[in-house]
Structures are given as C-alpha cells and as structure tokens.
Amino acid sequence: MVEIFFSYAHEDELLMNEVRRQMIVYEREGHLLKWYDRMIPPGEQWKDTIDIRLKNAKIILLFLSPHFIESRYCYEIEGKQALEKNANGEAIVIPVILRPCAWTASPYGKLQALPTDGKPISTWHDIDLASLGVAESIFKIVKELKINDFKNKKSF
C-alpha cells in the first residue's frame, strides 16, 4: 500500500477535503493510505507523529495556497522535508494548487503541479471535477509505484 501525506494549512481544509474525498475509493480498494494531521489521536505527540508519517510517505501532496505559503510550519518544515525526500528519490512530491498564489516563485515551482497547468482548484467552475482530476492523476502515480515495487521485489 502506498502511503500519501497531506501537507496543508488548516484554513484550506475544506478544499483539501474535496481532493481527499475523491481518493476514498482508491483507499477502500487497498491501493493507498491517506494521512493528514486530523488523524492524530488525542494525547499523542503531534510533531513526532507528523515526522514519522512524513518520513514513511511515498507521495507527499503539498496543498498550496496563500495560507500554506504564510504558514512557517507548512512551508519551511514540512515543505522543506518533502523537497529533501524528493531530491533523494525517497518520495514523489506533488504540489496541488488550491488557491491562486505565487507558488511558481517558491521552491515548489520547479515541480509539476496539479490540477493541469497549475490552475487553482478554487478557480474551476466545477470543483468536484477539478478534485476528481487531481485524485485520478495521483492514482496513476500510485499504480506506477506499485508496479515498480513489484518489479523490484521480483528481481531478488
């Protein structure tokens, strides 16, 4: 199962949830495991839990918006760790553009973003359609990772 880490600013939770919901069918079918900070149980050390989940993730979604860019934790901590994992080949990092923002001027601007052409989800006439397109694109990557993992295991 491919673990996916969601990095987002809480102000963007409603839009992030639109994408998350579109991925539920893939999770129910056992292809992936989504994780985001609202899943931390009460009493657990939130920073330690986030660090572990970020470390284990094979796909990291950065839900970009002005709020994400403003958030020191999202931008400088989670985002920086994600880019390091991406550079080391440990994870695939995908910017998901939620709202118009200067993301192309950020370190994340070098990465191919979703939705198509980096058009922010909030600007789409049909947010469901945009969110579904993002989910389907991510699932294609999940399938590729699973195929590559199978091939690597088979070669031993």
Write the layout of secondary structure elements.
Elements: E1 2-7, H1 13-22, H2 24-28, E2 32-35, H3 46-56, E3 59-64, H4 66-70, H5 72-87, E4 92-97, H6 127-154
Parallel strand pairs: 1-2, 1-3, 3-4
Helix pairs in contact: 1-6
Describe the structure using short key phrases.
156 residues; alpha/beta; 48% helix
Beta-strand content: 5-15%
For the biggest β-sheet, the strand order reads 2-1-3-4
Distance between the ends: 20 Å
Oligomer: single chain
Name the overall outline: globular
Q: Total helix count?
A: 6
Indicate the structural class: alpha/beta
Q: Which residues sit in consecutive blocks of at least 5 with pLDDT less than 50? A: none
Q: Give the proportion of residues in helices.
A: 40-55%
Spell out the helices and strands N to C: EHHEHEHHEH
What is the number of E strands?
Answer: 4
Instruction: Profile the largest sheet.
Output: 4 strands, parallel
What is the residue-averaged pLDDT? 93
User: What is Rg?
Assistant: 15 Å
